[in-house]
Amino acid sequence: MAKRKQLILAFLLSGTIASVLYTAFHMSYTNSTQNTSSLDNVATQISTHNAVTKAQSKSTQWVKTQKKNKVPPTRKSTPKVRPKLRGYVMPESPLQFSDIEDNFISQNELAFEKMPNISLFARMPATTKYKKRYFCILLRSISLFWAVDFGPLVLVLDDESKEDHKLGDKLLKNQQLIPINIKIKYEKLPKDKSVLSFAGSPKSPNYNRQLWSSFFNDLYVDTKIIAWMDTDSTLITPVTTFDIFDGKKIRVIGQDKFSIGWVRSWGITTELALGLPQVADFMVYFPVFIWTDTYRNCREFILKRFKTTNFETAFKQIYHTGHANFISPVSVVLSYAWYFERERYDWHFELLDDLKTYNKRLPERHKLMDKHTKPFYQTSLHATYDGNHMKQGYCIAYQVTGDKIKGCEEFEKTSHTYMFFFGYGPYTHCLGKEKERICKTLLAKHYTFVAKHYASGKRKRPNIAHLKTIESLALEIGNVTCSRMIYTANIFKGIQQGHTNG
What we know:
The protein has 502 residues and is α/β, with parallel strands linked by helices. The chain has helices at residues 2-32, 42-68, 107-110, 128-145, 162-173, 205-213, 241-244, 261-274, 292-305, 311-319, 329-340, 355-359, 389-399, 433-455, 465-477; strands at residues 118-123, 153-158, 182-187, 225-228, 233-235, 245-246, 249-255, 288-291, 345-350, 380-382.
């Protein structure tokens, strides 16, 4: 018992050292950015980071000793703490077109051929779990709400897996049945296998592979923009050019969710990766539209920061520290974009705190401004939150074109306010009379674009028949059945097939 107490005391002391050094690193960096450029401080940051890692290795060594002596580790998991909510999801009301300027849509914004090409992007292994997600969640919603002329769906599979190659071959052979052009790519394993499998990893090697792979999305597309999707994300409304662009800038949504344990953990790894604080939680909406070259630029920045030409080396120093359990690649990439490519994006942050309080965590010259807190919506949800919202998007898309469809009566006086719902909150985007007015106007603009897209003749309206086709392919190609636990065509029961031409 005495020996065990000594071990525990040693662990607590080593953890305290790591914590103190990390705090010193954060404070040192924050103070230094007030006088010099963040790029000029990279060498100092790396040096301090190495000191932190050295102290953290003592804790890691203690864990190894624990395992050797068969003593259960006392490491606590990151608590799943939900933030206090200050706002709310707006009540439904009819779409309000009165506040929309008559000429707010230009012909250029409706001309698909004049917009930068986009790759809808997904990464997965060909396991039963992910095949079900791909067919039953992702592909069915894409078949309804993604414009074919926007660009293809790029699916990246595991190169070493025979099952993955079989799935890829079958998808390509049945391309003519799927209402979107699909491109199949294969990714090789990293040369250093310990990148994915290591002692103390909070995630499985397969999950770590997706995290690792997310820093290389640009290598698998030939388009200027990547629309990054989770396989368990479902589009709930037609995606339009207005949802993607503000002029020539790509829209980005971020949230203040640092009261959640895993988001704080992401913040630690993001700061280790960039030497700069994570700006917000960007893992809140899909598709995440990102300029393709932003991935490469971010990767090159990280390589320079860690003075290496091998990203495996840098990734291990970021993710294998034992101090920060989790990593959010999208939050790393978009935090990089905020610091170094800000003018290429149109930023929308939903904050729990007031702007002055929130900005205390950001260095000088990189603080948020009032214009960055304007509300904006998302066009998809994780399937967990979907409910009946895909049907609502389908119905309103027809209603705004003048069609009244049997089975859609419940949505005749709604505006799809759930498009402002972002997982755990904080639901402040539409809080207050003025913000609520702005939110309602944005929804009216979105569905005005939907109507104009269909009226232009360049885009076909959603077709329920596509759902049944994909369900059949799921069974034939993937050997999976799309159940009612996820949404199925059954939610459209009562809608007349005669109104779904296209």
